[in-house]
C-alpha cells in the first residue's frame, strides 16, 4: 500500500478545486470546540505508520489523502499507507484481510456489515475512548452517534450523515411542465405524480424507478406506518405488510408510473451510472443524498433532491458510512486520535467536503458553511439541513445477516415484477428465507 503523497494531476480532475483544497490546507485552525490545534497528542512514542483502506472514486481519494496529510503536518511522526478501490469487491478484500488477521488500522464500513464486524470482534471497541473524551462525539447529533453503536457500545464513527432521497431531473420537469415532487407527499401522491410525468412525456420517459426491492424505501414506508424493518435480530414486519408494499408498486406499474422490468433491473445494482434518472429512463430515482454530486456529473440536465415520500420523521440521522479501527492494531491510541481529527477538525471537514455526506460533527458543519465551493455539494448540504429538525429516532444498525436480507428482498420484488410470483406468495417466501438468514 503506497504512502500518502501529493496526489498527481489525474485526468479529469478539477485544477480549480485543487487550488481551493490547497488553500484550505494552509489556512489557520480556528478556535472551534473540538477543532483546535491543541488536540490531545497520541500516547505512542516514536514513528508510527498506519494503514488506511476505503472504497470510493478518485475525488474521494484526493480529499481523504489531503485530510490525512493535514494530520501528519500536525503530527509529523505519524504517516499513512493508503489503499482505496471502487465499491465492487471491497468487502471481499476486507474479508480476506480479516481472515488473515491483516486488517488495516483504519478502514471504512457501512451499516450493512457494522454489526457483523462488531460481533466478530474485528473492530475496536471505542467505549473507553469516548468516555475519557479522547474520541469526542459530543458535537454529533445524538441519533447519528447512536447509529454507530452495537449492543450499546460505540464501535465506529460516522464518516458523514446522509438521507434516503428522491433525485429528480429538474430540467426535464420544466420541459414537461410538471411540478417538482415535494418533501412530505404521501406514497400514493408520489405514484400519482409519476403517472402524470409519464403522460406528459407521451410514454417516452417514466415518472419513477420501481423501488419495490429497495430496502431503504421499504424501511421508510414501514416507519411512516409506525413499523420498523427490524426488531432486534428479527424482521419487524409480517408478510401482510410486504404484500401490501408489493401491491403498491404493482398498481404503479399498471398505471405506467414506472418503466419496464428490464430497465428497473439494470438499475437495481445501485451503481450511479445505471440510475434511471441519469440514463434518462425516468424523471426520478431513489439514492443517497450525498450521491448527488456524482449523479450530477453523470447527467446532462440539472438534478435536484426531495425527501422520499412519507413524513420526514420516518427518516433518522443516518451514517452514510463509518470509520472503524482494527481491534488488533498496534497503535490504538494513535488510530483513535486520527478518528477524532477526521471527525472534529474543521479544516479536515472542509477538505473532505460533502463526498461522504454532511460532516458528522455539527461544529464542523458550522465551520464549513460557505466553504464548500461546488454548488452541487452546496445543494446536497442544504437538503440535509432542511431535514435535520424533522428526523425521527434512530433504530439500531441492522443485525448480522442484513446483506443477505437485502438480496432476498430484491429477488422477491423482481419475481413479482416479472410475473413469476404473486405478491403474497413472494412476501411469504421472503419472510421464511430472511428469518433463516437472520437466525
Automatic annotation (TrEMBL):
Q: What is this protein called?
A: Carbohydrate ABC transporter substrate-binding protein, CUT1 family
InterPro entries assigned to the protein according to its UniProt record, in alphabetical order: Bact_solute-bd_prot1, SBP
Alphabetical list of PANTHER family matching this protein: ABC TRANSPORTER SUBSTRATE-BINDING PROTEIN YESO-RELATED (PTHR43649:SF11), ARABINOSE-BINDING PROTEIN-RELATED (PTHR43649)
Give the organism's phylogenetic lineage.
Answer: Bacteria, Bacillati, Actinomycetota, Actinomycetes, Micromonosporales
- What is the native source organism of this protein? Micromonospora echinaurantiaca
What superkingdom heads the lineage?
Answer: Bacteria
Amino acid at each position: 500500500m503506497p504512502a500518502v503523497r501529493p496526489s498527481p494531476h489525474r485526468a479529469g480532475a478539477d485544477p480549480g478545486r485543487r487550488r481551493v483544497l490547497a488553500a484550505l490546507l494552509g489556512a489557520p485552525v480556528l478556535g472551534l470546540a473540538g477543532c483546535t490545534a491543541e488536540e490531545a497528542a497520541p500516547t505512542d512514542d516514536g514513528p508510527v505508520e498506519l494503514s488506511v483502506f476505503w472504497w470510493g472514486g478518485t475525488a474521494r481519494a484526493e480529499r481523504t489523502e489531503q485530510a490525512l496529510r493535514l494530520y501528519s503536518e500536525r503530527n509529523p511522526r505519524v504517516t499513512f499507507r493508503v489503499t482505496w478501490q471502487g465499491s465492487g469487491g471491497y468487502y471481499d478484500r476486507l474479508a480476506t484481510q480479516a481472515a488473515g488477521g491483516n486488517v488495516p488500522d483504519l478502514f471504512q464500513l457501512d451499516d450493512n456489515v457494522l454489526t457483523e464486524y462488531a460481533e466478530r470482534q474485528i473492530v475496536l471497541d471505542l467505549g473507553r475512548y469516548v468516555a475519557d473524551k479522547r474520541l469526542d462525539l459530543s458535537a454529533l447529533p445524538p441519533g447519528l452517534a447512536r447509529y454507530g453503536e452495537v449492543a450499546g457500545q460505540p464501535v465506529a464513527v460516522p464518516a458523514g450523515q446522509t438521507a434516503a432521497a428522491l433525485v429528480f431531473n429538474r430540467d426535464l420537469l420544466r420541459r414537461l411542465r410538471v411540478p417538482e415532487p415535494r418533501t412530505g407527499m404521501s406514497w400514493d401522491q408520489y405514484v400519482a405524480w409519476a403517472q402524470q410525468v409519464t403522460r406528459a412525456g407521451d410514454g417516452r420517459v417514466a415518472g419513477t424507478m420501481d423501488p419495490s426491492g429497495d430496502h431503504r424505501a421499504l424501511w421508510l414506508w414501514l416507519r411512516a406506518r409506525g413499523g420498523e424493518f427490524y426488531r432486534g435480530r428479527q424482521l419487524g414486519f409480517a408478510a401482510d405488510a410486504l404484500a401490501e408494499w408489493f401491491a403498491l408498486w404493482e398498481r404503479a406499474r399498471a398505471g405506467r408510473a414506472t418503466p419496464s422490468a428490464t430497465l428497473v433491473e439494470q438499475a437495481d445494482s445501485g451503481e450511479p451510472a445505471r440510475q434511471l434518472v441519469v440514463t434518462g429512463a425516468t424523471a426520478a430515482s431513489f439514492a443517497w443524498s450525498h450521491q448527488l454530486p456524482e449523479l450530477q456529473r453523470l447527467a446532462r440536465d440539472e438534478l435536484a433532491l426531495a425527501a422520499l415520500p412519507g413524513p420526514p420523521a420516518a427518516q433518522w440521522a443516518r451514517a452514510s458510512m463509518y470509520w472503524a479501527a482494527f481491534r488488533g492494531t498496534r497503535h490504538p491510541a494513535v488510530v483513535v486520535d486520527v478518528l477524532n481529527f477526521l471527525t472534529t477538525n474543521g479544516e479536515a471537514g472542509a477538505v473532505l467536503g460533502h463526498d461522504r455526506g454532511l460532516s458528522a460533527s455539527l461544529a464542523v458543519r458550522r465551520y464549513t458553511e460557505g466553504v464548500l465551493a461546488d454548488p452541487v455539494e452546496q445543494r446536497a448540504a442544504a437538503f440535509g439541513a432542511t431535514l435535520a429538525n424533522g428526523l425521527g429516532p434512530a433504530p439500531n444498525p441492522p443485525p448480522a445477516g442484513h446483506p443477505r436480507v437485502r438480496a432476498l428482498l430484491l429477488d422477491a420484488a423482481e419475481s413479482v415484477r416479472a410475473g413469476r410470483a404473486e405478491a403474497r406468495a413472494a412476501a411469504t417466501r421472503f419472510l421464511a428465507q430472511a428469518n433463516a438468514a437472520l437466525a
